[in-house]
Amino acid sequence: MSSTLFRTKKVEQSILDTEEPEHALKKSLSALDLTVFGVGVIIGTGIFVLTGTVAKDNAGPATALAFVAAGVACALAALCYAEFASTVPVAGSAYTFSYASLGELPAWIIGWDLVLEFALGTAVVAVGWSGYIQSLMDNAGWTMPAGLGSREGADAFGFDILAAALVLVLTGILVVGMKLSARITSIVVAIKVTVVLVVIIAGAFLIKGDNYDPFIPKEQPVEAGASLDSPLIQLMFGWAPSNFGVMGIFTAASVVFFAFIGFDVVATAAEETKNPQRDMPRGILGSLVICTTLYVLVSIVVTGMQHYSELSVDAPLADAFKATGHPWFAGFISFGAAVGLTTVCMILLLGQTRVFFAMSRDGLLPRFFSRVHPRFKTPHRPTILLGVVIAVLAGFTPLTELAALVNIGTLFAFVVVAIGVIILRKSRPDLPRAFRTPWVPVIPILSVCASLWLMINLPAETWVRFAIWMAAGFLVYFLYGRTHSRLGRGEAAEEQPSAGGGGTP
Description:
Layout: H1 2-5, H2 11-17, H3 31-42, H4 45-59, H5 63-87, H6 94-101, H7 104-139, H8 161-176, H9 178-204, H10 231-236, H11 245-256, H12 276-305, H13 316-323, H14 328-361, H15 380-396, H16 404-427, H17 442-456, H18 460-484, H19 486-495
Helix pairs in contact: 3-9, 3-12, 3-14, 4-11, 4-12, 5-11, 5-12, 5-16, 5-17, 6-7, 6-16, 7-8, 7-14, 7-15, 7-16, 7-18, 8-14, 8-15, 9-12, 9-14, 13-14, 14-15, 16-17, 16-18
């Protein structure tokens, strides 16, 4: 039993599977496309909201250092992802990497985990996008009909039609093709980054040096736990510690870390990249460097514009401009946030469909979903299925309690990928590696420790829900996946002749 549960799929076989005509994805992405995807999914609500929260309740002006610390933690994981994505350029990201290094059952577990992570992430972001759009509509004097607005905090029956519509439109775009998705993402990311740069440049002229004193506050000047009133922080994390000093910086880092979630989605597009050995490391690491730089600059500007103790929790950037007599920027920033969430939603949906597609191609899920569209060469069946399910989820469910599962799922994937790098280095030292994670096993071990430390800070109820989802995954695997696995059927076919004395290759 244990030998079948931990059977590994050779890297060479994974690459050969990508060449089957009915199951081959079209290669159309460049390093620039991948970098744009990374920036598009990382820069979202986090940069517009988290800065004020952690500055007010944890780190003060030293929030910039918290972003640096979180960026370093992500960089450790990114180095591991870059090696795997360039060595095993196959759709599925951490799922495919685990199959090649840890075995089938661990691969199934991480794949099942990623399906949940990306599904909930897409739905939560769609609901957030709907909220921004409705806010802009209210400013223009338009109001959504009763029962068709956001479901967040609502007790009565209703359907968030904007959130559902966004998911369905993005589903259609992903079905048509990756190049179209990349072009749309490029346009949206250009708008989003422009908004962020305008905020940085305009805000730089409004900085007051006194607001940086003290740079690392020793004690909290506001009532403890005030940030817990923020529905967004409750939505994303379920907690908000309130200690200052040096430890406040690390506490803040554990919160703002989640503003970086998404760079790992770039790895799911490895199979659709023209030159994955060269371009995947550039896309993953390049997008992370760009976003970390923007995050640090924004935090420096906003804490310089307004004293950290006076920053708002829900919209710190917009309210900081209002406080300095520039209310026009509030609407401009809300527009940028709404535009930014569009690409976040699309790329999370992209990541989920590629993981689902890879699991289906391996037989762990029905092979029906592994056939690509004859014209567009995209996995249209899982894209449509998951798009409809997520649209319904986003329309009917507030997701306040479930959203924290996105965080633990991502960190769990980081741990698995880092361990996989160490194992594959030992088991397959002969593999050609276009990019090699430096200082193995030190870097992967540091990545595991950083991810586990951040996971420990998540609420207990998140761990319980995560365990329930994992238990359901084990059930599906043993009832379907293990017996339908292509790797398992291949081993059985090879072992049958051995009864007459032949050896198993």
